[in-house]
Structure formats: C-alpha cells, structure tokens
Design goal:
This protein is an alpha/beta fold. Helices cover 34% and strands 10% of the residues. The chain contains 3 helices and 3 strands. Helix 1 packs parallel to helix 2.
C-alpha cells in the first residue's frame, strides 16, 4: 500500500465543549504510514487552527523525525497496543515473528516517549 498526499480542508469547529480548543486528531489506520512531509503539513495546520494535535498509532514506525514533529507541533501521542507478546498478535504483521518484533518496537517506542516527557493528556481504557 502506498500513501498519497491529500489537500487540507477544514469543515469542522475549532471549539469543543465549554469553549475548550480541540486538537486535530489523526486516528485512521496507521497514520505514520503517511509521508512525513504530509504529516508535517497536517500537524502545522492543526497547531495553527487548534493549538495542538493528537495521533493514535501502534508506535512501531516512530523514529527520530516523528519525535521531532511531535515536539514541534504539540502532538499528543496515543498508542494502540493490546499487550506484550501473544496478547498483541491480533495486530498481525505477516508472521508470528514479524508481529512480535513490531510489538517490541511499539513497546520500546512507548517507553522512549515516556522517558522523553511525552505524557498522555489523559488515560482511557477500552474494553471489548
């Protein structure tokens, strides 16, 4: 699958309940598959319009460039991980080995972001 550039358009409201500003949220598929130049355009738009951004990722693809973008554009990073080892195998990466390696990268990147001060704005738990 190849990611492509898309033009930015704004059709929503910048204010949430009680007048609080909402971040631009990137919640579809795996947003870190988007070319970094396009992510930067999205984050720049979100920062200008909303004052912050948010992204939900499995975390396996995070690298130095992503971390720099997260800092520059006030990106709150959420991780989608079901657990270590076999607990995360429903997030299939082609083989058990590849899936386990991706899970370890995800957990390693989560720990790294926490060490570097990327704390979640709030925590939530999903069930299902």
């Amino acid at each position: 699958m190849r990611a492509t550039s898309v033009p930015l358009q704004h059709g929503g409201h910048a204010e949430g309940p009680r007048g609080r500003r909402r971040p631009l949220l990137c919640l579809w598929g795996e947003p870190l598959l988007i070319p970094k130049a396009d992510l930067e355009r999205l984050f720049a738009f979100g920062l200008e319009r909303y004052g912050q951004n948010g992204i939900q990722t499995n975390g396996a693809l995070i690298d130095e460039d992503h971390i720099a973008l997260f800092r520059k554009y006030r990106v709150h990073v959420g991780f989608s991980i079901d657990g270590p080892g076999e607990l995360n195998r429903l997030r299939w990466a082609g083989s058990v080995e590849a899936t386990d390696e991706a899970t370890e990268r995800s957990i390693g990147n989560l720990r790294r972001l926490l060490r570097e001060g990327f704390l979640p704005p709030s925590s939530s738990r999903s069930t299902g």
